Structure formats: structure tokens, C-alpha cells
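New to this. Explain the following:
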Amino acid sequence: MESKTFRVISLTMAGISLVSVFGLAAILLQPTWHFYAKSPSNDGYVAPRDIGALVEATQESTVTVECDQKGDKNDAFGSGWAIDESNLEVPIKDGFKSAVITNYHVVDSCIENGFSGISVAKFLGKSFDAYVMKYDKENDLVLLGTKAKLYPLELSPWAPLGGYWVMAVGAADGYEGSISIGSVLNETEYEVLITNSISSGNSGGPLVDNMGLVVGTVTWGAIGEQYNGAKSLDAMCKAIIRCPGKYFWERE
């Protein structure tokens, strides 16, 4: 017959085991709760759980942008990303389906020669005509309208902090769909400094966070340095996108 003392010991051990199980589960799940909450005020420091899915989704919304001047052997090319029309001050012309943001220096020769010869192409796909909707030469940004049907990327409501995980997508040296992963080094009033490797052809492509939300447009590389740069959403407030005030992100 089971003694009272033995039953007490058994119940105590069972309780300890149950607490241990829940404690272990809490430890295992804690990183998920901490790093992937809905508000990524501190979640931006880690890589996404499914990098492959994030890459694929961002590539679908990224294009190669070309400026083709007849008879000019030095045609320019770069990258661009689709933005939702609700974020813009100007509507897209009839017959055009999507809006794309890229760098001014990618299409500057076309702008200076009558705004003609600009096209965008889905990665490894066909080219579509494009036209200039607005541009901001000072901040090296251009808004294009294109006949290509693109799924727009969403804009991040959170400013990128130093150390945040970021990914650049574009046509590095002409290799369409190129991916570069790094982190935010720092940010200035209108730029995000990044550790991502950037090559010719990346210009104009999106810089996204670990949720696939855009934080900037890849713009320049610092020769001889270990960082490169992107124009932030705040820079786009001057002429390219609709913002609540001078800045896209709230600042103290």
C-alpha cells in the first residue's frame, strides 16, 4: 500500500517536472517573443526567420532600370523598387500601372535629353516603358511611372537604428536579383549608412529591414571604406513621397 510520505514526494517531483517543462519552453520561445513581436522597436537587430521568402518577395517588387539614348554606347542602368500609389502626391498616368523609385543618376542622361528612353524590366523578364513622374536631383531620387504591373513594397514606420539587419536588392554589376545582407552602421538626417556590399547597378534598389519593409533607396558606395549608403524615407519627403511633415519618421 502506498504510504502518505511517498505520495507527497511523488506529487512534489511531478510539480518540479512540470515547472521545469514550462520553464524550458519559456526559454526556447523567449527569443521568438522578443525578436518577432508586432512592434519591432528592438526586433530589427536579428535576421528574419525565413530569409528565402523575404528575398523572393522583395525581388518580385524590384526592377532593373535602363536609360537608353540612341547611338550612345554608355547607356546607364540601375535598379528600382515599386511603391504604392497611396504614398504619392501625384497620380500615375492612364495606361501606366505602377510607380517605381530609383536614383536620379541612373536616368540623368535621359532626363537631360528630353525625358525619353527610360524603361524598367522585371528581373530576367521583359522591358516596359517608363516616364518621369517627379524627381529630386539634390537627393538623387526619381519617381517613375511604368506599364509593368508590380507588387509594391511597404514602407517601414520605424526608423532604422544602428545594428539593424538590412538587405539590399538590385542588379549588382548587371547581375539581376543580386542580394546583399548587412546591418545599419548609422544614420544621418537623410541617409542610412550600411555595411552591405554595394556595386554598380545596385543604385536605386530597395534597402529593406527584417520584415521586408523599405527603409531606404540604395544610392552610393564609399570607395576605400567599409560602408555604403542609402537615401532614407526622410529624404524622399522633399519631393518624392507624401509624408506627415518634414520627415517620414517622427523625430524628437
Notes: Residues 162 and 186 are 5 Å apart (CA to CA). Residues 154-236 form a domain with the Thrombin, subunit H fold (CATH 2.40.10.10).
